[in-house]
Amino acid sequence: MIRRLLVANRGEIARRIFATCRLIGIETVAVYSDADAHAPHVAEADYAVHLPGNAPTATYLRADLILGAARKTGADAVHPGYGLLADSADFAAAVIDAGLTWVGAPPKSIALLTSRLESRALLADAGVPMLPAFGEPEHVPGFPVLVKSDVGSGGRAMRIVRDRDTLADAFAAVRREAAGLFGNGTALAEPYVERARHIEIPVIADSTGGVITFGERECSIQRRYQKLIEETPSPAVSPSLRAELCTAATAVVRASGFVGAGAVEFLLAPSGEFFFLEMNTALQVEHATSECVSGFDLVRLQLLVAEGSPLPMSTPPPVRGHAIEVRLCAEDPAYAWLPSTGRLHRFHVPDVAGSFRPLPQPGLRLDTGVDDGSAVGVHYDTMLAKLVAWAPTRHEAARMLAAALTRSHVHGVVTNRDLLVRVLRHPAFRSGNVDINFVDRHPEVFAPLLSSVDAVRVSCLAAALAGAAARRATSTVLATIPSGWRNVPSGAQITVYDGPAGPVEVGYRLERTGELAGWWVRAVDPEELDLAGLGAPPLTDDHPPVAVVSAAPDRVVLDVNGIRLTFGVHRVHDVSYVDSPEGSVALTELPRFPRPSELTDGSLTAPLPGAIARVMVVPGQRVRAGDLLLTLESMMVEHPVHAPSAGIIASVPVQPGIHVAAGTLLAVLNPD
């Protein structure tokens, strides 16, 4: 029996495992890096051990430190969660050799299944359908193909190749990336299936030979081969196809000697054929969807299996309704999915029914590793939370999830929230017409929710009125007089914000009664800001008629063309986060007298904080447009910095290994 469990992970998955442990009476041990010292998973554990440092290679990937923490705290079992060391056969073996219970697959099964090449021959003999694989460029007979690493997950080290001219370069790039990411530079190519869907079968197997499948999960909404939205059941899978997929998944489990919880992943072609992709040998991010529709706690089943008990059921559980999960990530889809870091000033999702365990009835489930005030740093994955909607039908689940995301308050970092809502409400998604290239084929999902001109303008007006109300609330002189009041008609109140599309100027004038006499919002050139209001446009300037119902520092109610709207305004320093039923926007108030920029023409700056990984150029070197100058590592992803034009490198004030903040000067390029 497991008495005290150490979770060799962090964030959301650590909290998820702790929740089940508390429910069934197992004590818990957390490990944490410097950056995670105040993280929620640390506070929720019975015991916690510090792993000095921040980088995963110095902390959460150090098997010796984690085993030392287990010995120090008297833990008798280790759960790896997902990611990090969860797919490491060496770590699993080390845990077992230390005399601890390993809550995961046997090391031999992990080693076999995490190698795509090694698993193919065994599984082909077991009758599992799969695509042919080619280990060298000269062996590839036709195109298109997908070149990918032999090991690893998360959609990294992959390239689509459509002609022979670029095949060798793709193999070389994948081998280089795989060696750096996974310590194994082996690559292979397989035919690329156009318009394919990503279908997986979650499974759990015990040591007595029992194997249970939990239906299928559709994971086709992806970016860069990484999942964004998962659902169960799939709208593309019929009962007969489901039976075939589950039979193939069971064959994979039995042939590999797998024990524990995992998922067998397949490609589903438009023709209805399916092909084995790989098996994930750990609990997956999207396991919550299977828990919703089955009613089973998969972490509890993992712990039972690890203790040597047989599974409590002999047949797959029936599917109850439909569940859809989204991964809310700190990244900006509109800017090449650039990660976002900073302080999470507010994190609130409305109407959540439960967290970290199966729901007793349909509703919203939120599993997250962050809360108000959490720091989102550069060292770990971008995912902030998983939000799951469980409902009787797919339509109801998508509608519930989109509405909850729209009304959520996520302040402090840029997220993919708007894109997720756009996808959930897209007619093609609602009809079930999806594949792994859905996001690329529908660029309209990249538009912000708050995209209409009038909606943006009114949100800006609400921010300005809330700011004025805040100043009046803290004023020590004539505090009862309405903001902007004059004895005789005078100029408008002017505020300038830096918004998502650049600087905007907000002007308004109030009557003696506090009623709005007129207003405008216009885009402005940063070098032509008119803070004095001189030359301002007419106060009516084709804007919808607006009446102020109430204006407080944190809440503004406006009557817009006969429709009453409420705006929540959360101001942090110079930034106002404005939330409304139509969407959210962050507005940074610009100073009245901005300081001149210290950057010269040709300056290339860091797009986000991170560590300099590689520097490819030196001062005096001539480069072409598009040449790789250096790379920046942030949130476990390497981000390239390319030359915007041809020219000569004037200076490179950074070197590998140093950490830089967003906006730091990386290089100066003198264009030809």
Automatic annotation (TrEMBL):
Pfam families: Biotin_carb_C, Biotin_carb_N, Biotin_lipoyl, BT_MCC_alpha, CPSase_L_D2. One of its GO terms (molecular function) is ATP binding. It comes from the Bacteria. Residues 97-307 form the ATP-grasp domain. Residues 594-670 form the Lipoyl-binding domain. Residues 1-444 form the Biotin carboxylation domain. It is an enzyme of class 6 (ligase). The keyword ATP-binding applies. Its EC number is 6.4.1.3. Keywords: ATP-binding, Biotin, Ligase, Nucleotide-binding. Its cofactor is biotin. This is Propionyl-CoA carboxylase alpha chain.
